Amino acid sequence: MKHLLLPFMALSTVAFGQITLTDQHFAGPSESYIFSTLTDPTIDYATTGANYTWDFSSMVPQDQRSLITRPSSQITGLSIIQFGSFAPAPYKATYFNSSTDLPLDQASAFLPIPIDELNGFTKNSSNAITSIGYELVSNGQGLGFRSDTIETRYALPMTYGNNYESRGYTNLDLNPIYDAKWRQHRHRITNVDGWGIVKTPFGQFDALRIHHVIDEFDSIYFSVQGLGMWIPIPVPLAHEYEWRSTSDKEAVMRIRTNEILGTETVTAIEYRDNFNGLGLIESQLNVSFYPNPVINELHVSTEKQADNFFIVDQSGRIWKKIPGSSKDQVIDVSELASGSYSLVVLSSDGYTSVKFIK
Protein backbone atom coordinates (compact mmCIF):
# COMPACT_ATOMS: atom_id res chain seq x y z
CA MET A 1 0.00 0.00 0.00
CA LYS A 2 1.21 3.49 -0.73
CA HIS A 3 1.59 5.87 2.18
CA LEU A 4 1.10 9.61 2.16
CA LEU A 5 3.81 11.62 3.80
CA LEU A 6 3.83 15.00 5.45
CA PRO A 7 4.77 17.16 8.41
CA PHE A 8 2.93 19.54 10.73
CA MET A 9 3.61 22.66 12.75
CA ALA A 10 4.78 23.17 16.30
CA LEU A 11 2.39 24.10 19.07
CA SER A 12 2.84 26.71 21.75
CA THR A 13 2.10 26.46 25.45
CA VAL A 14 -1.61 26.45 26.29
CA ALA A 15 -3.70 27.29 29.34
CA PHE A 16 -4.82 24.16 31.23
CA GLY A 17 -8.27 23.10 32.48
CA GLN A 18 -11.23 20.92 31.63
CA ILE A 19 -12.20 21.33 27.97
CA THR A 20 -15.03 20.64 25.54
CA LEU A 21 -14.35 19.47 21.98
CA THR A 22 -16.48 20.65 19.05
CA ASP A 23 -16.22 20.05 15.31
CA GLN A 24 -13.80 23.00 15.14
CA HIS A 25 -11.25 20.90 17.04
CA PHE A 26 -11.06 18.12 14.43
CA ALA A 27 -9.20 17.88 11.14
CA GLY A 28 -10.72 19.40 8.01
CA PRO A 29 -9.74 19.29 4.33
CA SER A 30 -6.27 20.20 3.01
CA GLU A 31 -4.54 19.74 6.36
CA SER A 32 -1.43 17.78 7.25
CA TYR A 33 0.02 16.26 10.40
CA ILE A 34 3.13 14.37 11.46
CA PHE A 35 3.28 11.72 14.18
CA SER A 36 6.31 10.16 15.81
CA THR A 37 5.86 6.46 16.55
CA LEU A 38 7.50 3.96 18.88
CA THR A 39 7.04 0.61 20.59
CA ASP A 40 6.83 0.16 24.36
CA PRO A 41 4.86 -2.84 25.69
CA THR A 42 5.07 -1.48 29.25
CA ILE A 43 3.50 1.93 28.59
CA ASP A 44 0.66 2.79 30.99
CA TYR A 45 -2.49 3.20 28.89
CA ALA A 46 -4.96 2.23 31.63
CA THR A 47 -4.55 4.87 34.33
CA THR A 48 -6.96 7.80 33.95
CA GLY A 49 -9.38 10.06 35.80
CA ALA A 50 -10.43 13.64 36.43
CA ASN A 51 -7.80 16.38 36.74
CA TYR A 52 -5.06 13.84 35.99
CA THR A 53 -1.55 14.32 34.59
CA TRP A 54 -0.27 11.74 32.09
CA ASP A 55 3.49 12.08 31.68
CA PHE A 56 4.81 10.50 28.46
CA SER A 57 7.55 13.11 28.01
CA SER A 58 10.39 10.56 28.13
CA MET A 59 9.27 8.71 24.99
CA VAL A 60 11.94 8.28 22.31
CA PRO A 61 10.68 8.25 18.68
CA GLN A 62 11.66 5.35 16.46
CA ASP A 63 9.79 6.28 13.30
CA GLN A 64 7.38 8.83 11.86
CA ARG A 65 4.16 8.63 9.92
CA SER A 66 2.21 11.38 8.26
CA LEU A 67 -1.36 12.23 7.42
CA ILE A 68 -2.85 14.45 4.73
CA THR A 69 -6.55 15.21 4.47
CA ARG A 70 -7.56 15.71 0.86
CA PRO A 71 -10.53 17.94 -0.03
CA SER A 72 -13.60 16.64 -1.86
CA SER A 73 -12.48 18.61 -4.93
CA GLN A 74 -9.72 16.00 -5.38
CA ILE A 75 -12.09 13.03 -5.51
CA THR A 76 -11.80 11.30 -8.89
CA GLY A 77 -13.38 8.52 -10.92
CA LEU A 78 -16.49 6.72 -9.72
CA SER A 79 -15.90 7.98 -6.18
CA ILE A 80 -17.16 11.43 -7.26
CA ILE A 81 -20.67 10.01 -7.56
CA GLN A 82 -20.47 8.39 -4.14
CA PHE A 83 -18.89 11.19 -2.10
CA GLY A 84 -18.68 14.35 -4.21
CA SER A 85 -20.83 17.48 -4.28
CA PHE A 86 -23.80 15.67 -5.87
CA ALA A 87 -23.89 12.85 -3.31
CA PRO A 88 -26.75 12.70 -0.77
CA ALA A 89 -26.14 14.98 2.22
CA PRO A 90 -24.98 12.24 4.66
CA TYR A 91 -22.36 11.12 2.10
CA LYS A 92 -20.92 14.48 1.02
CA ALA A 93 -17.34 14.05 2.20
CA THR A 94 -15.52 16.77 4.11
CA TYR A 95 -12.22 15.09 3.24
CA PHE A 96 -10.61 11.74 2.53
CA ASN A 97 -7.27 10.24 3.53
CA SER A 98 -5.22 7.07 3.41
CA SER A 99 -6.81 4.58 5.81
CA THR A 100 -5.97 1.40 7.71
CA ASP A 101 -9.55 0.74 8.87
CA LEU A 102 -9.82 -2.39 6.73
CA PRO A 103 -7.44 -5.37 7.22
CA LEU A 104 -6.07 -4.95 3.71
CA ASP A 105 -2.93 -7.02 4.24
CA GLN A 106 -4.99 -10.07 5.22
CA ALA A 107 -7.70 -9.63 2.59
CA SER A 108 -5.43 -8.97 -0.39
CA ALA A 109 -4.60 -12.67 -0.67
CA PHE A 110 -8.25 -13.39 -1.49
CA LEU A 111 -9.01 -10.46 -3.80
CA PRO A 112 -8.73 -10.91 -7.59
CA ILE A 113 -7.15 -7.48 -8.12
CA PRO A 114 -4.11 -5.75 -6.58
CA ILE A 115 -5.06 -3.00 -4.11
CA ASP A 116 -2.56 -0.14 -4.17
CA GLU A 117 -4.24 2.08 -1.62
CA LEU A 118 -7.23 2.30 0.69
CA ASN A 119 -8.84 5.68 1.36
CA GLY A 120 -11.43 6.48 4.01
CA PHE A 121 -14.03 9.26 3.62
CA THR A 122 -15.04 11.49 6.53
CA LYS A 123 -17.93 13.90 7.03
CA ASN A 124 -17.75 16.60 9.71
CA SER A 125 -20.84 18.22 11.21
CA SER A 126 -21.62 20.10 14.41
CA ASN A 127 -22.89 16.94 16.11
CA ALA A 128 -20.54 14.23 14.84
CA ILE A 129 -17.44 13.16 12.95
CA THR A 130 -18.55 10.18 10.85
CA SER A 131 -16.97 7.53 8.60
CA ILE A 132 -19.08 7.42 5.43
CA GLY A 133 -17.23 4.95 3.19
CA TYR A 134 -14.09 3.74 1.49
CA GLU A 135 -12.24 3.82 -1.80
CA LEU A 136 -10.12 0.97 -3.13
CA VAL A 137 -7.44 2.18 -5.55
CA SER A 138 -6.24 -0.41 -8.08
CA ASN A 139 -3.95 0.40 -11.00
CA GLY A 140 -4.62 4.11 -10.47
CA GLN A 141 -8.42 3.77 -10.57
CA GLY A 142 -10.58 4.41 -7.52
CA LEU A 143 -13.71 2.42 -6.65
CA GLY A 144 -15.84 4.13 -4.00
CA PHE A 145 -18.21 2.35 -1.61
CA ARG A 146 -20.64 4.09 0.74
CA SER A 147 -21.19 2.68 4.21
CA ASP A 148 -24.76 1.40 4.45
CA THR A 149 -24.65 2.09 8.19
CA ILE A 150 -22.58 5.19 8.98
CA GLU A 151 -20.24 4.90 11.95
CA THR A 152 -19.88 7.82 14.36
CA ARG A 153 -16.25 8.20 15.36
CA TYR A 154 -16.89 11.19 17.63
CA ALA A 155 -20.24 12.36 19.02
CA LEU A 156 -20.13 16.13 19.57
CA PRO A 157 -19.85 18.26 21.57
CA MET A 158 -17.57 16.05 23.68
CA THR A 159 -16.64 16.53 27.31
CA TYR A 160 -15.54 14.47 30.30
CA GLY A 161 -18.02 11.75 31.24
CA ASN A 162 -19.59 11.43 27.78
CA ASN A 163 -20.12 7.95 26.33
CA TYR A 164 -21.79 6.60 23.21
CA GLU A 165 -22.10 3.57 20.95
CA SER A 166 -22.09 3.40 17.16
CA ARG A 167 -22.23 0.73 14.48
CA GLY A 168 -20.90 0.74 10.95
CA TYR A 169 -21.58 -1.59 8.04
CA THR A 170 -19.97 -1.42 4.60
CA ASN A 171 -20.46 -3.79 1.66
CA LEU A 172 -17.67 -3.44 -0.88
CA ASP A 173 -19.09 -5.24 -3.93
CA LEU A 174 -16.68 -5.41 -6.87
CA ASN A 175 -19.33 -6.82 -9.23
CA PRO A 176 -19.79 -6.66 -12.18
CA ILE A 177 -16.05 -6.06 -12.69
CA TYR A 178 -15.02 -8.94 -10.43
CA ASP A 179 -17.07 -11.54 -8.59
CA ALA A 180 -15.82 -10.53 -5.16
CA LYS A 181 -17.30 -8.81 -2.09
CA TRP A 182 -15.92 -7.51 1.18
CA ARG A 183 -18.23 -6.93 4.14
CA GLN A 184 -17.22 -5.01 7.23
CA HIS A 185 -19.25 -4.84 10.46
CA ARG A 186 -17.97 -2.54 13.22
CA HIS A 187 -19.26 -1.85 16.73
CA ARG A 188 -17.69 1.09 18.57
CA ILE A 189 -18.11 1.88 22.28
CA THR A 190 -16.56 5.18 23.38
CA ASN A 191 -16.06 6.59 26.86
CA VAL A 192 -14.46 9.95 27.70
CA ASP A 193 -12.85 8.70 30.88
CA GLY A 194 -10.37 11.40 31.83
CA TRP A 195 -9.32 15.02 31.62
CA GLY A 196 -6.20 16.89 32.64
CA ILE A 197 -2.70 17.49 31.27
CA VAL A 198 -0.84 15.15 28.92
CA LYS A 199 2.91 15.59 28.48
CA THR A 200 4.78 14.33 25.41
CA PRO A 201 8.17 15.20 23.87
CA PHE A 202 6.20 17.66 21.69
CA GLY A 203 4.88 19.64 24.68
CA GLN A 204 2.14 19.56 27.29
CA PHE A 205 -1.54 19.95 26.52
CA ASP A 206 -4.87 20.44 28.21
CA ALA A 207 -6.67 17.29 27.04
CA LEU A 208 -9.56 14.87 27.21
CA ARG A 209 -8.69 11.16 27.43
CA ILE A 210 -10.95 9.10 25.14
CA HIS A 211 -11.20 5.30 25.17
CA HIS A 212 -12.66 3.54 22.11
CA VAL A 213 -13.40 -0.20 22.03
CA ILE A 214 -13.85 -1.44 18.44
CA ASP A 215 -15.25 -4.88 17.68
CA GLU A 216 -14.96 -5.70 13.97
CA PHE A 217 -16.12 -8.63 11.87
CA ASP A 218 -14.91 -8.83 8.26
CA SER A 219 -15.49 -11.40 5.54
CA ILE A 220 -14.52 -11.81 1.90
CA TYR A 221 -16.59 -13.51 -0.82
CA PHE A 222 -14.88 -14.70 -3.97
CA SER A 223 -15.58 -17.18 -6.75
CA VAL A 224 -13.25 -19.93 -7.97
CA GLN A 225 -14.31 -21.75 -11.15
CA GLY A 226 -17.90 -20.76 -10.56
CA LEU A 227 -17.94 -21.85 -6.92
CA GLY A 228 -18.47 -18.96 -4.50
CA MET A 229 -17.48 -18.95 -0.85
CA TRP A 230 -17.25 -16.56 2.13
CA ILE A 231 -13.96 -16.44 4.03
CA PRO A 232 -13.94 -14.80 7.49
CA ILE A 233 -11.05 -12.45 8.25
CA PRO A 234 -10.04 -12.59 11.92
CA VAL A 235 -9.80 -9.10 13.43
CA PRO A 236 -8.94 -8.93 17.15
CA LEU A 237 -10.88 -6.72 19.54
CA ALA A 238 -9.17 -3.32 19.42
CA HIS A 239 -8.79 -0.58 22.01
CA GLU A 240 -7.75 2.95 21.13
CA TYR A 241 -6.74 5.40 23.84
CA GLU A 242 -6.31 8.97 22.69
CA TRP A 243 -5.67 12.35 24.21
CA ARG A 244 -7.24 15.28 22.35
CA SER A 245 -6.70 18.98 22.91
CA THR A 246 -8.41 22.13 21.71
CA SER A 247 -5.01 23.38 20.51
CA ASP A 248 -4.57 20.66 17.86
CA LYS A 249 -7.00 19.15 15.37
CA GLU A 250 -5.49 15.67 15.66
CA ALA A 251 -4.87 13.51 18.73
CA VAL A 252 -1.73 14.71 20.52
CA MET A 253 -1.19 11.17 21.84
CA ARG A 254 -2.62 7.80 20.83
CA ILE A 255 -2.09 4.22 22.04
CA ARG A 256 -3.63 1.20 20.31
CA THR A 257 -3.94 -2.29 21.76
CA ASN A 258 -5.39 -5.62 20.68
CA GLU A 259 -7.30 -7.72 23.21
CA ILE A 260 -7.12 -11.51 23.04
CA LEU A 261 -8.65 -13.68 25.78
CA GLY A 262 -9.02 -10.64 28.02
CA THR A 263 -5.39 -9.52 27.75
CA GLU A 264 -4.43 -6.32 25.96
CA THR A 265 -1.19 -6.05 23.98
CA VAL A 266 0.15 -2.68 22.83
CA THR A 267 0.33 -2.57 19.02
CA ALA A 268 0.99 1.12 18.28
CA ILE A 269 2.04 4.32 20.05
CA GLU A 270 2.16 7.70 18.37
CA TYR A 271 2.24 11.36 19.31
CA ARG A 272 2.09 14.64 17.41
CA ASP A 273 5.55 15.92 16.62
CA ASN A 274 7.75 18.06 14.44
CA PHE A 275 9.18 16.73 11.19
CA ASN A 276 12.46 14.83 11.46
CA GLY A 277 12.17 12.50 8.45
CA LEU A 278 12.42 9.25 10.45
CA GLY A 279 11.02 6.44 8.32
CA LEU A 280 9.44 8.71 5.72
CA ILE A 281 9.96 7.98 2.05
CA GLU A 282 12.05 10.46 0.08
CA SER A 283 10.61 11.01 -3.39
CA GLN A 284 12.43 11.72 -6.65
CA LEU A 285 10.36 14.84 -7.36
CA ASN A 286 12.48 17.46 -9.15
CA VAL A 287 12.40 20.84 -7.41
CA SER A 288 14.07 24.07 -8.51
CA PHE A 289 13.94 27.45 -6.75
CA TYR A 290 15.45 30.91 -6.68
CA PRO A 291 16.89 33.21 -5.35
CA ASN A 292 19.17 31.78 -2.69
CA PRO A 293 19.76 33.62 -0.39
CA VAL A 294 16.19 34.95 -0.46
CA ILE A 295 14.83 38.23 0.85
CA ASN A 296 11.03 38.29 0.48
CA GLU A 297 9.83 35.81 -2.16
CA LEU A 298 10.96 32.28 -2.95
CA HIS A 299 10.05 31.10 -6.47
CA VAL A 300 9.59 27.33 -6.59
CA SER A 301 9.00 25.04 -9.60
CA THR A 302 8.12 21.33 -9.41
CA GLU A 303 7.57 18.78 -12.18
CA LYS A 304 4.08 18.13 -10.83
CA GLN A 305 1.88 20.08 -8.42
CA ALA A 306 2.80 19.40 -4.80
CA ASP A 307 0.27 18.81 -2.04
CA ASN A 308 1.97 21.11 0.45
CA PHE A 309 5.17 23.06 1.08
CA PHE A 310 6.68 23.37 4.57
CA ILE A 311 9.41 25.71 5.76
CA VAL A 312 11.38 23.95 8.50
CA ASP A 313 14.18 25.39 10.62
CA GLN A 314 17.30 23.49 11.69
CA SER A 315 15.62 22.20 14.87
CA GLY A 316 12.79 20.58 12.87
CA ARG A 317 10.18 23.18 13.78
CA ILE A 318 7.80 24.04 10.97
CA TRP A 319 7.38 27.79 10.59
CA LYS A 320 5.08 27.91 7.62
CA LYS A 321 2.78 25.60 5.67
CA ILE A 322 1.71 26.51 2.12
CA PRO A 323 -0.85 24.45 0.16
CA GLY A 324 0.28 23.53 -3.34
CA SER A 325 -1.66 25.43 -6.01
CA SER A 326 0.42 25.03 -9.18
CA LYS A 327 3.71 23.67 -10.52
CA ASP A 328 5.17 27.20 -10.34
CA GLN A 329 4.60 28.86 -7.00
CA VAL A 330 5.74 31.99 -5.17
CA ILE A 331 6.18 31.66 -1.40
CA ASP A 332 6.28 34.72 0.85
CA VAL A 333 9.17 34.41 3.32
CA SER A 334 9.38 38.07 4.33
CA GLU A 335 8.43 37.33 7.96
CA LEU A 336 11.10 34.67 8.49
CA ALA A 337 14.08 35.55 10.67
CA SER A 338 17.53 35.35 9.13
CA GLY A 339 18.98 31.85 9.10
CA SER A 340 19.10 28.48 7.33
CA TYR A 341 15.89 26.65 6.45
CA SER A 342 14.68 23.60 4.56
CA LEU A 343 11.83 23.73 2.09
CA VAL A 344 10.05 20.36 2.35
CA VAL A 345 7.88 19.55 -0.67
CA LEU A 346 5.17 16.96 -0.02
CA SER A 347 3.36 14.85 -2.60
CA SER A 348 1.65 11.46 -2.65
CA ASP A 349 5.02 9.98 -3.70
CA GLY A 350 6.84 11.19 -0.59
CA TYR A 351 8.87 14.25 0.30
CA THR A 352 11.73 16.23 -1.21
CA SER A 353 13.81 18.65 0.83
CA VAL A 354 15.99 21.54 -0.36
CA LYS A 355 17.92 24.08 1.72
CA PHE A 356 17.86 27.86 1.45
CA ILE A 357 19.16 30.86 3.38
CA LYS A 358 17.11 33.89 4.46
From TrEMBL:
Residues 290-357 form the Secretion system C-terminal sorting domain. Keywords: Signal. Residues 1-17 form the signal peptide. Pfam families: Por_Secre_tail. NCBIfam families: Por_Secre_tail. This is T9SS type A sorting domain-containing protein. The lineage of its organism: Bacteria, Pseudomonadati, Bacteroidota, Flavobacteriia, Flavobacteriales.
